[in-house]
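Propose amino acids for all 373 sites.
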């Protein structure tokens, strides 16, 4: 294993173990997690593999095969820079929670496609978090691990994300999507084997990331909190009469509320269709989700919109942006015998606009975080 070879080279010994945590796509339920709502992500076959040994002192040494020459030796975790803030943030948050976590020697190797918005940061956090859980005998439940990793991203990295990505990475089951109630944190594995229907989820990686994304995410959260406050409910999850709620709101707060409330219903509708084995029918809900994210939530971008429109034009049953938005990937529900046509239609639409070609990846639901050796 190349991560083990790299560990030997960096630190001159065998790692105590190797752990893997996946990235994710979200089938549906976007920008609902921090509104106490529903999400339905699944783990992808790409992620982060971490070779780790515990240390007797409190120092963290960390290197990445994706960042050669950027090894960091951290007696003080606050000095972590760039990519290293995600895993070292987990160490810091675990210690802050009173868990008996000392130092670690860490080498990581990731294969989540770059710029795809498939949550490589959660994979980074969860792989190292699971390693520490095992090595220091913390006995964490997967959801506890996910919450500590989310806290690391919120408080150490400063990204106010919800729980979806870390939960998907920590809890997913192979061949299943994870139906998660982000209020109770109850998760249920929902069988999601599309091959039985001659269908697949095709990831369309736009390869773009619009930088304004960072502040925009926090602004969307704020819009939702403001709307909930105005409506006198704990969160937008609690809106039961959408028409009445909308009549009391205006502008951005109104639009965000319309998205969140309807998106929660779309997740439940997808769950119902999966249960009824009416899988092709979820396509229409993916399309509706995209329009709502584009028009009401305003987190799409031209590259995502064109990918979605062209995929549907090429014969996809439905398509939508997935993840936070402003770039990253779209997903399309496509019959196996239509994949080539969908790809060609999207490629053509991009070429016509003079954009760099997107990349395509079939997404099969992979296992969640686990020890590899
Ligand atoms: C990002 C966040 F990290 C998630 O918590 C979630 O809010 C998502 O955007 C939007 O659904 O991936």
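Proposal:
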């Amino acid at each position: 294993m190349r991560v083990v070879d790299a560990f030997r080279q960096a630190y001159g010994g065998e790692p105590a173990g190797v752990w893997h945590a996946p990235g994710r796509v979200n089938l549906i339920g976007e920008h609902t997690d921090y509104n106490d709502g529903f999400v339905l992500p699944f783990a992808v076959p790409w992620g982060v593999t971490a070779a780790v040994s515990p240390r007797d002192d409190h120092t963290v040494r960390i290197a990445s095969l994706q960042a050669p020459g950027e090894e960091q030796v951290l007696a003080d975790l606050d000095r972590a820079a760039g990519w290293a803030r995600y895993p070292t943030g987990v160490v810091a948050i675990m210690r802050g929670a009173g868990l008996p976590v000392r130092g670690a020697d860490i080498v990581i190797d990731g294969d989540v496609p770059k710029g795809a918005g498939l949550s490589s940061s959660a994979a980074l956090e969860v792989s190292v978090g699971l390693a520490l859980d095992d090595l220091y005998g913390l006995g964490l439940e997967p959801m506890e691990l996910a919450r500590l990793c989310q806290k690391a991203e919120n408080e150490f990295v400063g990204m106010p994300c919800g729980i979806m990505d870390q939960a998907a990475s920590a809890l997913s089951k192979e061949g299943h999507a994870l139906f998660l109630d982000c209020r109770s944190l109850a998760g249920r594995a929902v069988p999601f084997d599309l091959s039985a229907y001659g269908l697949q989820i095709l990831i369309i990686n736009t390869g773009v990331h619009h930088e304004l994304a960072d502040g925009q995410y926090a602004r969307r959260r704020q819009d939702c909190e403001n709307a909930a406050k105005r409506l006198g409910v704990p969160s937008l999850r609690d809106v039961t009469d959408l028409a009445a709620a909308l009549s009391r709101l205006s502008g951005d707060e109104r639009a965000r509320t319309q998205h969140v409330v309807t998106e929660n219903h779309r997740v439940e509708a997808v769950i119902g269709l999966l249960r009824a084995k009416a899988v092709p029918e979820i396509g229409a809900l993916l399309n509706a989700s995209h329009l709502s994210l584009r028009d009401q939530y305003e987190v799409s971008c031209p590259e995502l919109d064109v990918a979605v429109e062209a995929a549907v034009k090429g014969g996809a049953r439905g398509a939508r942006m997935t993840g936070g938005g402003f770039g990253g990937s779209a997903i399309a529900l496509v019959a196996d015998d239509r994949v080539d046509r969908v790809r060609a239609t999207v490629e053509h639409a991009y070429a016509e606009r003079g954009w760099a070609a997107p990349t395509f990846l079939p997404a099969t639901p992979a296992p969640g975080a686990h020890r590899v050796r």
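DSSP finds eleven helices and 13 strands in the chain. The chain has a mean pLDDT of 97.
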